[in-house]
Amino acid sequence: MRIDLASAPGHQERPNEDWVSAAIPASGGGVLVVLDGVTPPRGEDGCVHGVPWFAARLGGRLTELSGSRRDMPLDRILAESVRATAEAHHDTCDLSHPRTPQATVVLVRWDEAYVEHLVLSDSVLLLQAPGGEVTAVLDDRLDRIPREVLGSVAATDALRNAEGGFFTAAADPAVAARAVTGRTPRGQVRAVAALTDGASRWTDTFGEGDWADCLTVLRKEGAQGLIGRVRAIESDPARPSGRYKRHDDASAVYAEL
Fold first, then answer.
1. Which stretches of the chain drop beneath a pLDDT of 50?
2. Burial class (CB in 10 A: 0-12, 13-18, 19+), 256
3. Which tens digits make up the pLDDT trace of 120-135?
4. Which of 41, 54, 66, 132 lies at a C-alpha separation of 20 to 30 Å from 97?
5. Which residues, other chains included, contact 160 with Cβ-Cβ below 8 Å and sequence gap of 6+?
6. Are 203 and 209 spatial neighbours (Cβ–Cβ below 8 Å)?
7. How far apart are CA 154 and CA 229, in angstroms?
8. Where does residue 100 rank: exposed (0-12), middle (13-18), buried (19+ CB within 10 A)?
9. How far is CA 153 from the centre of its chain?
């Protein structure tokens, strides 16, 4: 088994709001957890802690439960982790605020029988079959919303964790039911990768290659190599910026099973 991961902030003067972790439990198999903390627009968000605190709390709980509670399906693990994280700051913060700290989620867990997955919001999961074919597991609800709508803070707030909008892990455990989930027989998966949108833009924004090409870069150059390629493109003044900002926190994890 080989696991490689890397994470880089979008700006050195701002904390990285991503979370990436991997675990190899004593019981066998493995776990990958990738979160992309949602940077709120300037203004009040009802929380005294901030997104990095939230991502660390949620990511830590997801990693613990995914590795220790194999009897719990991933959607229940997400629900319990969101509940526990909300409990940790409900006395000090307004968790009903639409911009309360929140994050995208990718969970992967495998044992000798199956590879399980969960994706919520716009981070990306890649599954590679033994023959080399790559399947992207996506939650595309955010991509269905017109960019001009997302340019409005009020309109975006109205669509957060709402019917007809998009869903992220915030303070309501019920959001776990909105995640894209599934499982694949272990023998049908050779490698997996998870990317926050700061890293997946190599494919989905800049079009430097398809998802199979992206996985090849991860295999040959590692997670840091892919992030380095993204940063080089972003630094080229002749290239357009990413969807919402030129530089974003970028995280990637690659595992050969």
1. none
2. middle
3. 999 999 999 999 999 9
4. 66
5. 98, 99, 102, 166, 168, 170
6. yes
7. 34
8. buried
9. 22
Digit-coded pLDDT (tens) for 214-242: 999 999 999 999 999 999 999 887 776 65
Say how far residue 229 (Cα) sits from the centre of its chain: 19
The pLDDT score that the predictor gives to residue 243 is: 59
pLDDT of residue 106: 98
CB 105 within 8 A of CB 78: yes
**Could you give the CA distance from residue 76 to residue 144 in angstroms, rounded to a whole number?**
27
pLDDT score at 207: 94
